[in-house]
Each structure stands twice: as structure tokens, then as C-alpha cells.
Amino acid sequence: MQNLGQIGDTERFYSYWILLGGLLILFVMSGVGFYAFGVFFKPVQEEFNWGRGVTSVAFLMFYLVQAISSPFIGGLTDRYGPKKMLTLGGLALGAGLALLSLTVNLPLFYVAYGVVGLGCSATGMVPISFVISNWFPTRRGIALGIVSSGMGMGGLVLPLIIGIYLIPNFGWRTAYQTLALLTVLIIVSIAQIVMKTSPLESRQHSDNVERSDKTKGISSQPSEGWKLNAALKTSIFWLIVSSYFVFQMAHVGTL
Hints:
The chain is mostly helical. It has helices at 9-32, 37-48, 52-80, 82-100, 106-122, 125-135, 140-170, 172-193, 199-207, 213-219, 228-231, 235-254. The chain has two domains: 9-197, Growth Hormone, Chain: A, CATH 1.20.1250.20; 227-255. The longest helix has 31 residues, at 140-170.
């Protein structure tokens, strides 16, 4: 049996579909989640006559839920696989957007953006990088760079469509509802049809062979390596974690 590092021609071709699928998921997730908030801010604030400060607390809820949920999303991805996580995340993101369209008061607005934050966490880089790491064992860096560009493209394109077309023509509530529907259709469809955990899963799906328990164990891990308990005991691990943590605080806080 081939291991994950030995990818045949068929799997190598399919890996580009994986790359495109991951890019599109991040495109939608970032565009309707993070970057769309600023477009909806003014019409929502004006309708309810809320202050800028109290309205902005919704964005705090968005990031707070993302921060708290990310470690759990990682654990659930390890346990159940990225396909299930992306599917559930797409449903949660769509539900949060639909809930935003029903906003009647600040608490509901905050809760809805918390649900959006959970959906974004479950459809973000944690499950996507899991898949990409399996499919690109030798060119992982450039593959992750390409797929993560979907977040920037989503932030460039979708807010323009929302701000120039959807909200002026249909109102902010209908805009949220439209995004909810499109989010579920696109993310869930890609997760179910395109995304496969590894080349091994793709190969067995093509051959219509059921996976054994041993095979499942192989396909759920990118490669043999450090176990979490062992990594937690090393200073290098904590240096990497703290560096990334500080970088994200500075980057997101400034932005």
C-alpha cells in the first residue's frame, strides 16, 4: 500500500481540486464572516440607532468565540476528520448569518455573531491546513500559501458585492439571508463532494473499498510525528505557540 508521501498521477491531479476547494471555502468564510462586518455596520447601526461602541461589541464576540473554540475545533478535526468539521462549520456559519437577518436587539446581534465566529473557526485554516498537509507532503508551504490567499480574495470581492449590490437593492436583512444560503450551498457542497482527508481516502473511494480500522488510522494523520503530550514538554513547541500568538494579537489588533 502506498503511504501518504507516495502520490500517484491520479491523486496528484486530484490534489489541485483539493487546493481549489480549500481556496473557495476560505474565500467564502472570510468574505461573509470577517470582512463583511464593516459593510453591514452602518445600515444596522442606523436602523436601530445604536452607538458605534455597542455595535462593535458584536465583532468582539465574533473573535472571542473564534479564540475559545479554535483548540476544540482542532481536536474535533483530529477525531472526526476535516470533511465533517467543514460541513458542520458551513451549516453553523449559514445559521449565524440567517440569525443576523432576524436581529431585533443587541443581545441577539451579539449571539448571532458568536455563531458566525464559531462557523468561521470550523471552516477556517485549522481543518483546511489539515487536508492540505496530507495532500501536499513535499510542497506544503506553497500549497498553504495558495489556499490561504482565498481569505484575502474573499475580503476583496465579497464586501464589494454586498455593499454595492446586495444591501442597496435588497436591504441588509435580505443580504444576510442571501449570504446564509450561498454559504451553506458552497461550503457544504465542497466539503461533501470535493474535500477528502488524504490521497489514501481518494484512492479507496475510487476503488469502492471500505476502509479498515487500520486504514482509518493512517488516513486521519498527515504523517508520523510528535504526539501532543511529548510536544508539550519541549521549549521549542511553546516558543512557536507564543510567537504565533503574539503575531496574531498584533496583526488582528492593528487591523
